[in-house]
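Problem: given the chain below (443 residues), write out its structure.
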Amino acid sequence: MIRSWLSRALNCFLPPELPKGVKWGYAAVYALVAAIAVYFSFVKPYATTTWDTAGYFTAFDTLASGRLDLWRTPVYPIVIGAIRTIAAPYELRAVEVVQWIVFFLSIPAMRLAATRVIGERHHTAVFAATALYALCPSILAYNDFILTESLSVSGSVFFAASLLKGLRLDRPGAMHRAMLWLLALIMLRPLFVCYLPVMAVVIVGYRLQGGARVRRAFRSALLGFAVCIGVLGGYVAVMYHTYGITSLSIVNSLNNYYIFRRNGVVTPESASNPVVKAAIERHFVENARFEQIWAEELNILDDVGPAVFADYIGELMANHRQTIVDVWSFRLFYKSTYYALSHDAQMTCRFDRPKPPFIPLCDGMVFLILTLTALCCLWGWRRRVNPEVLFVGGAPLVLMVSSLIGAQDEYSRLSLPGIPLIILYIIYLTDRIWHGFLRLRAR
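Solution.
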């Protein structure tokens, strides 16, 4: 039994049907990632904490008391809280090791996802996509951070592998797993809610393309999607009953406060509620820096409570729509030209070597929009739809736009889970263009 299990595990990492050279390439990638993980976990440990880290442990304590946390959705607090319970006082190192292990397991999942999109016979292209993912410096670096980034990236790959298997092979079970992964991602990081409209389009496209042949898998996807929506609705209902807010957490309201504060909108006169007005008067800091603004809004939140604070932000959103439009336009059409999809203080900087940006955010969005539009036109001309590629290109696009609009100062971290799909999408297009060129030359 153990031998059979080990054989299946080995086949998952190194399938026997792979060409010998490609198999050695995968082995080298696995060995290199394992060496990096051991180096940064034990030889030169980095277990990096930020001001967010303590909040996740506090959220676990809140959840353990039987209440949802105001700040954090439950997946990451439960993971690191459980590790703390088992491995204290070495919980930070243990979390880091667990994140490296999960990432290592996501590498063969990336190979499977690439196989579903690019094709089983395109071994070199599939290997290229997998290797680029496994060795991407920014992705590797975040495995050492006690933040949601590492599990967001790995979870995105598991989600993509399940969904693409369901789409390509018409597997109802894979569709169910994909929706469970999507729900876990949203409960890990609320921004993943932006994947829901993409999934709706992909599921409809899948049904139109497959017809009656995919009826069972389509029903499974539809049922999983409905369950995902239902669980999220129930979670929000509990948050409303507990804190009086109609969202998964209070963080979005705090981010919007920061936007209005930096643009001079927040003043005592901006609040119609006298309680909020008095709180702003008590805590308002002239010429405040980032840390002071953050402390200011936390103090106001503590004074007035979550429901009143959220109502105040809603009031600002209603009364200052032009400010929101101006800020979002500035971000999308000006600052996004040099915003990069990875942080510049990551792995290579640990060796005192600067790392160039992975890809400018604006360039990435324009590239995805143009190529997806071209592909949709091609599919329309051929009267066919490719839901796999639609997901691989559409999901990172909506993630990039949503993170840039919703949290300008954290866009690089929030957009990070889209990088594996961007890699997969680029390799898919490159492979198709190359083989198209070869066919033309052979005529």
